[in-house]
Design a protein that fits this description.
Elements (H helix, E strand, L loop, with lengths): L14 H7 L4 E9 L2 E8 L2 E8 L14 H9 L14 H6 L3 H17 L10 E6 L10 E6 L2 H14 L18 H17 L19
Antiparallel strand pairs: 1-2, 2-3, 4-5
Helix pairs in contact: 1-4
Protein name: Reverse transcriptase domain-containing protein
Organism: Brachionus calyciflorus
InterPro entries: DNA/RNA_pol_sf, RT_dom
């Protein structure tokens, strides 16, 4: 089977993986369980490999899991200018000003392959970190706040995922972070109004507040 004939935009969960190999292989077994899972066993260079493809649980059909050129073009238009570049030294302006049809087509294929396979390029995990001094003596690493800058491609993928997350069923209505038109102010308003309601009706109010101390330093 010639994998060059596979179309990553066709909705096959394993299509993106096939395109990454770019050689000929024999499909031994292919089993589809449901729209969220598939199993593919192939023989490649005298070895057997099992590929398991999974979808994120979106509820609007398989097409909602992928992006089209118009969707990606809108994201590129919303990139902010005059921002620092990441480890690839490619600025946002490169994608904003270079958004021609052929380039958009290639980027769409690339991101759909990533969404299809769940494979993230290693460079996407690399950030340029700049230590920003806090108030204090600045004699210890804890006296600095690290600011990390990821590559523009990684930031674009993040924007795609955030947009797709709106289709998920299991995001609680009282989650205010990472949601459009919502912020910590809305969470504060909700807690404050709940507090006032129970106090005015003579009930006790107990609040448990959790804060992750140096969460990013312990990942």
């Amino acid at each position: 089977m010639d994998i060059s004939k596979f179309d990553c935009n066709s909705g096959r969960p394993y299509g993106g993986i096939c395109c990454l190999v770019n050689k000929k292989f024999n499909v031994i077994e292919c089993e589809f369980i449901d729209s969220n899972y598939s199993f593919l066993k192939v023989k490649f260079e005298k070895q057997f490999f099992n590929f398991i493809g999974t979808w994120l649980p979106f509820d609007n059909g398989s097409k909602e899991r992928l992006i089209n050129q118009e969707f990606l073009n809108d994201i590129l238009k919303n990139l902010k200018r005059n921002k620092a570049a990441g480890n690839d030294y490619i600025s946002n302006e490169f994608f904003i000003n270079g958004a021609i049809q052929e380039f958009i087509y290639i980027l769409t294929w690339f991101f759909n392959t990533t969404l299809n396979t769940g494979y993230i390029p290693e460079d996407f995990n690399i950030s340029l970190v700049t230590p920003i001094p806090k108030k204090g003596t600045m004699k210890s690493p804890t006296d600095y706040r690290p600011i990390s800058v990821s590559s523009t491609l990684a930031s674009i993928l993040e924007s795609i995922l955030l947009s797709k997350m709106e289709c998920l069923k299991n995001i609680h209505k009282h989650q205010f972070g990472s949601k459009k038109k919502l912020s910590g102010k809305h969470a504060y308003y909700l807690v404050n109004e709940t507090w006032n309601h129970y106090k005015q009706n003579g009930s006790n109010v107990y609040i448990l507040s959790l804060d992750a101390c140096k969460a990013f330093e312990k990942l």
